[in-house]
Amino acid sequence: MSKLYSGAEIVFKCLEDQNVSHIFGYPGGAVLPIYDELKNFNSIKHILVRHEQGAGHAAEGYARSTGKPGVLLVTSGPGATNAVTALTDAYMDSVPLVCITGQVPTHLIGTDAFQECDTTGITRPCTKHNWLVKDINDLAEIMHKAFEVATTGRPGPVLVDIPKDIQFQKSKYKNYKKNKKLNGKSHDNFSQKNIDELINLISKAKKPIFYTGGGVINSGTKASELLRELVYATGFPITSTLQGLGCFPADDNQFLGMLGMHGTYEANNAMYSCDLMINVGARFDDRITGKIDEFSPKSKKVHIDIDPSSINKNVKVDLAIVGDIKSVLTTTLKTFKKSKKNFSKSNKHQISNWWEQIQKWRSIRSLDYIGSEETIKPQYAIERLYELTKDKDTYITTEVGQHQMWAAQHYKFNKPNRWMTSGGLGTMGYGLPAAVGVQIAHPKKLVIDIAGEASVLMTMQEMSTAVQYNLPIKIFILNNEYMGMVRQWQELLHDKNYSESYTAALPDFVKMAEAYGCVGIRAKTPEELDDKIIEMLNSDRPVIFDCLVDKQENCFPMIPSGKPHNQMLLGPKDQKEKKITGKGRTLV
Amino acid sequence: MANSKSAYSFAGKKQKPDTHIIVVWVDNEAGVLARVVGLFSGRGYNIESLAVAEVDQKQNISRITIVTTGTPQVVDQIKLQLKKLVPVHKVADFKREDKNVIFKEMALFKFVANNGKLNKAFEACKNFNPVILDKTNKSNVIQITALRREIDTMSKNLKKFGLVSVSRTGAVAMTRGSEIFK
């Protein structure tokens, strides 16, 4: 007879077999048997966070920077509900997470027991799938299936809810069998005919553009390489969504910058005027499309995505290719090289007018801002941060708001998995714990959270985690004392009624850093900024960097509410002429 | 074009909604109905009726039949989103007008009246396979199977014969002929 293991042991044996090296978590009554077993599994290191939301975001940062699933372990009731924000965030941004929650013992379920909540009920809409383990004999299989669901197809979070009595009960351990297809949910579903059609469209296009997104990053580093190869082979311009930054080098001439609400003038105008749009792993999100009826009216649209439900959801496309980006691009390149050997030569002429037009848009220089010698402009701070860190292999996380958009605009990413930001859900407080997770995965690398002072206060407690594990994360706060994006919208849409968007009592971030046991640095003038940033980079400890920036600066360019891509606001001067009125005010 | 849910853009031009019958084969496990129904409510789709029961005990498969209305784009999304759920095996979609598909609903009617009216009530039901399931000298319970709209009309018209209570299932569907849906 084979050996019997307790439920808690089975959990760890599964994690071992899944090659999990780190879990982020917080103990509590209903997971104590699992925590008790931790000491017997040396290959798995537990990172104690200060709040379960932090565990979730740290696991997200870990997952996004490595491509491996992130694992978190929390207790029942409040432990589970605190993790919900992070699970939803991961669901929106397709990040693979496995969340293990404790639950009250089976016989107490449904009695409103202490720290009981309907965890699987609460998390059903924010996970790809979840399980309540009711029988110890199912535990191993469910655990392995959880990893499989989280990582196959379009990745996402899953949750396994384990009642406390199940953690004590004993069963045999069933080893991991690579499952057959998950109800056919995760494999490629495209044909050579689709690819031939794509190549036909590519060869005919006069005004083409690649529009790439987070799907390229999720498909693995190889997908980014293939994308670069295809973009260079075609000579087409390329723009990227917020989540896709890094899959194509930002300093390359073919890259038009980010598109969408705060994207560049050239990217948005190219999207509007193109005749062929090739969407690679993006989802026509509302921050991208603007007014949907006038979205890229004259183009043929191709959509490559692994999730069939993303196709034709917001925008009707002419050619849908359902599959993993990596395999689609592999086949495309193979066919392309075979059938269009001299493409780039013959094609150069065909799209030369298009490039001329793009250069005209580029010459507007939509990311420019008015510099200052007295106050630090937030854009300037990011530019300096980029210049001083670009030679290092830097990982950037962000919170949500103006600073996030400025980071996306002014920090140039050349590699995938270096940019971790909350795009879909827009979770303030994401960046600090995410930086913890990234630093755990890459102990020797430079990890910076570009933050706003309002966002960072939402999860500030995780500095304590960073100190405990000697994680030298750098929290670079662009401090304007406002919830900047809220203030900007109030200025543009609500007659400058800055209702509750000013934080009248902020902590002293330098003293706060010292209280946490890390380093606090403050920069007040453009003159001292470089030296202070270098001081931060030279520190081998966690740093909170309080960068006092211009309080009134707005994030431009911007597509105003309810407007299409070709009607952007470029800056303070522009906005007087194109006031947002009528229906536009009601939109988010 | 797109009926966008976006808070950022204005809703696009409206397409005409149609009634569809969606059949979903699922693993019969805890919470599976909540997943399917939650998907409908969470994404703002509409359920007109719902019928669910286990159809294969050996393989533990349940069949859920949902009547819904939506534009072609919404119906497509419903199908694609359903297919993403882990316990879902396959999804079929029929238009209500489809001549190759049989749709049936069952209803139980309770009448309390004198014998004359009870007989008339049974007579009125005769096109819909009426079966008398219970009878006393002042009441009876009649089972009929019919289309949704027919039952709607019936329950209105039978009031005069002493109809006091109606209980009805959601629609179930099956294709005609020897074909089965794979």
Highlighted features:
heterodimer, A: 588 residues, alpha/beta, 6-stranded parallel sheet, B: 182 residues, alpha+beta, Alpha-Beta Plaits, 2 domains, 5-stranded antiparallel sheet, 4-stranded antiparallel sheet, 4 helices, 39% strand
Explain what you see:
The complex is a heterodimer of chains A (588) and B (182). Chain A is an alpha/beta fold and 588 residues long. Chain A is built from 24 helices and 20 strands. Chain A has a six-stranded parallel β-sheet, sandwiched between helices. In chain A, strands 11-10-9-12-13-14 form a six-stranded parallel β-sheet, sandwiched between helices. In chain A, helix 23 (526-538) links the parallel strand 19 and strand 20 (543-548). In chain A, helix 3 (52-66) packs parallel to helix 4 and helix 16 (378-389) crosses helix 23 (526-538). Chain A is globular. The mean pLDDT of chain A is 94. With 182 residues, chain B is an alpha+beta fold. Chain B has helices at residues 32-42, 72-84, 115-124, 148-157, and strands at 18-27, 49-56, 61-70, 88-95, 101-112, 131-135, 139-146, 163-168, 172-175. The two termini of chain B are 31 Å apart. In chain B, strand 2 (49-56) and strand 3 (61-70) form a beta hairpin. The longest helix of chain B has 13 residues, at 72-84. Chain B folds into two domains: 16-95, Alpha-Beta Plaits, CATH 3.30.70; 101-174, ACT-like. Chain A, domain 2 (Alpha-Beta Plaits, 2-Layer Sandwich), CATH 3.30.70.1150. In chain B, strands 5, 6, 7, 8 and 9 form a five-stranded antiparallel β-sheet that branches. Chain B has a four-stranded antiparallel β-sheet with strand order 2-3-1-4, with helices on one face. The model of chain B is unreliable at 1-10 (pLDDT under 50). Chain B contains four helices and nine strands, in the order βαββαββαββαββ. Chain A binds chain B through residues 120-121, 124-125, 128-129, 132, 134, 149, 182-183, 185, 261, 286-287, 289-293, 307-309, 311-316, 561-562, 583, 587-588, and chain B through 1-2, 4-10, 12-13, 30-31, 34-35, 38, 42, 73, 76-77, 80-81, 83-86, 88-89.
